[in-house]
Amino acid sequence: HTRLTCDWSSDVCSSDLGIVAGFGLVGATIAMGPDPGGFIDIPSVLIVLGGTFAATLICFPFEEFLQAFKAASKTFTSKRTMPEEVVDVMVQIAEISRREGILALERVETNNPLLKKAMQLIADNADPELIHSTVVIEISSMQKRHGINIGVFNKMAALAPAMGMLGTLIGLIQMLSQLSDPSALGPAMAVALITTLYGTILANFIFSPLATKLKSRSTQESMNLSIIFEGAKSILENNNPRLVYEKLSSFLAPSVRKHEEDK
């Protein structure tokens, strides 16, 4: 049987680089100061991180909270599929259907369930309108699922600085209770401000970037789905691989499109 591969997506290298660079710069700045150990405060971590998680769980069910972190982890571990790769796969399917007939697509193996569904629709000689309605439903349901994950991290990005301010207020209240001891005011003020620092770092280096990354992933996957099902329609209408490529190449940036001499 013919084997086709079409996995979805991850920016492992660029994401790792961003995390290392971001925390590396902050860590280097702290290390250059007179007292790096003063930036470590466990109660502040509990207030900011624990408070952010607790408030988020008020907004979202526990299952959606966990699913958001599972989706985020997949952005670092799953294989990335570019639109041009999906176009190439659909052209391969067009070549198989033209050479062996559309029923041969039932025997083609793939690890992508949506690609398998598209090939089944082709093999069944489905109405193009059915294919169109199928992709609309698939994209809509996928975007709704992704929207929840994105919403979880957007909410945490908004809550983390607020929890940092809450920790700062608690620290200031504790500091004011020690006004009789001027030597204790400086350290108490430092601890009060650390929670704001923690909240800012979590929001801007973790939660907000993850929300943006998931949104970018959702957009890319929507495009890949559109390419798959638009390719299926094209194959049913005219399974000439060259014409299928010409139609699907409209999804691609001009710089990655193949010219006639490259095919």
Topology summary:
Elements: E1 3-4, H1 12-31, H2 42-59, H3 62-77, H4 83-100, E2 109-110, H5 113-123, H6 128-176, H7 185-237, H8 241-248
Parallel strand pairs: 1-2
Helix pairs in contact: 2-6, 2-7, 3-6, 4-7, 4-8, 5-7, 6-7, 7-8
What is the end-to-end distance? Answer: 24 Å
What order do the helices and strands follow? EHHHHEHHHH
Structural class: mainly alpha
Sketch the major β-sheet.
2 strands, parallel
Describe this structure as you would to a colleague.
The chain is mostly helical and 263 residues long. Helix content is 73%, strand content 2%. It is built from eight helices and two strands. It has helices at 12-31, 42-59, 62-77, 83-100, 113-123, 128-176, 185-237, 241-248, and strands at residues 3-4, 109-110. Strands 1-2 form a two-stranded parallel ribbon. It is elongated. The chain starts with a strand and ends in a 15-residue tail after the last helix.
Short recap of the structure:
The protein has 263 residues and is mostly helical. 73% of the residues lie in helices and 2% in strands. It has helices at 12-31, 42-59, 62-77, 83-100, 113-123, 128-176, 185-237, 241-248; strands at residues 3-4, 109-110.
